[in-house]
């Protein structure tokens, strides 16, 4: 069953159409990748899923509710079910890692202090940062900052996690650590992850489905592990190549079980 459904979404900035007619389904539990050339509209599409970008027309249905039809108040509540991380980690520099993760819980008055502490610690353990809880973001590596941002994004136990270019500032080793964290988050919490990246090897290694955005539409959607299916776009073919490479590194049966 789809947890996210975009139906004929259109979005222009001024006279420039970015999303011309985007329809896609993301199944519950998917790690779903969005690929596309620079400027193709990947981030715009991702930001449409929680209505940070409001489409000009079309439906954005998350967990059964069309977000475009909600009142401001209901939209605020619906967004608590959709965590998000950004290319730049957006951590609050004057707060410790613990307080960054606790921030959305405190903001929404969720949980009493002992439960909040347990929740934050559990999130930090999941992303491998339990030992860094009292550090300030400036002392973390790029991968650790992204992992702290993931911990913050999952603290309110959303069903959906949106990740915008989480590995773009990371070297190869840090990228592998971050992909491992996202796999753990997916496996342990069952959260549905949608990830935008221009790094095809990362998408090929992580995602069980990928959509390629081209000319404002979804040009194709496929499972990277299905390396035998014909690909329509050059980018799809590149992804298939990287999926074969990734298969040599990570056994797909383990990765996508
Ligand atoms: N708020 C905005 N106002 C005006 N134009 C915008 C806005 N956001 C995005 N755009 C434009 O929309 C187009 C798509 O941008 P978007 O960031 O979604 O693409 P992308 O595929 O994520 O690109 P990249 O891989 O380079 O990050 C670009 O031409 C961009 O300049």
From TrEMBL:
Domain ABC transporter, first and last residues per copy: 4-240
GO molecular function: ATP binding; ATP hydrolysis activity
Protein name: ATP-binding cassette domain-containing protein
Keywords: Amino-acid transport, ATP-binding, Cell membrane, Membrane, Nucleotide-binding, Translocase, Transport
Source taxon at top rank: Bacteria
Pfam families xrefs: ABC_tran
InterPro entries tied to this protein: AAA+_ATPase, ABC_transporter-like_ATP-bd, MetN_ABC_transporter-like, P-loop_NTPase
GO biological process: amino acid transport
Gene3D superfamilies: P-loop containing nucleotide triphosphate hydrolases
PROSITE patterns noted in UniProt: ABC_TRANSPORTER_2
SUPFAM superfamilies: P-loop containing nucleoside triphosphate hydrolases
């Amino acid at each position: 069953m789809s947890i996210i459904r975009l139906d004929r979404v259109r979005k222009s900035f001024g006279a420039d159409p970015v999303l011309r007619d985007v329809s896609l389904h993301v199944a519950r539990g998917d790690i779903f990748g969005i690929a596309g050339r620079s400027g193709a509209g990947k981030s715009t599409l991702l930001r449409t899923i929680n209505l940070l970008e409001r489409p000009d027309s079309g439906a954005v249905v998350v967990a059964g509710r069309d977000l475009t039809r909600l009142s401001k108040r209901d939209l605020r509540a619906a967004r608590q079910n959709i965590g998000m991380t950004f290319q730049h980690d957006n951590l609050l520099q004057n707060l410790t890692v613990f307080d960054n993760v606790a921030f959305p819980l405190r903001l929404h008055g969720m949980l009493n202090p002992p439960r909040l502490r347990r929740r934050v610690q559990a999130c930090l353990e999941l992303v491998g940062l339990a030992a860094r809880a009292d550090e300030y973001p400036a002392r973390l590596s790029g991968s650790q900052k992204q992992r702290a941002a993931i911990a913050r994004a999952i603290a309110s136990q959303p069903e959906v996690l949106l990740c915008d270019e989480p590995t773009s500032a990371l070297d190869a080793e840090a990228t592998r650590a971050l992909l491992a964290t996202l796999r753990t988050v997916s496996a342990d919490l069952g959260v549905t992850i949608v990830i935008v990246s221009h790094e095809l090897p990362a998408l090929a290694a992580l995602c069980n489905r990928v959509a390629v955005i081209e000319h404002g539409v979804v040009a194709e959607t496929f499972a990277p592990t299905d390396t035998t299916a014909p690909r329509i776009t050059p980018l799809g073919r590149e992804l298939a190549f990287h999926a074969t490479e990734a298969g040599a590194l990570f056994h797909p049966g383990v990765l996508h079980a």
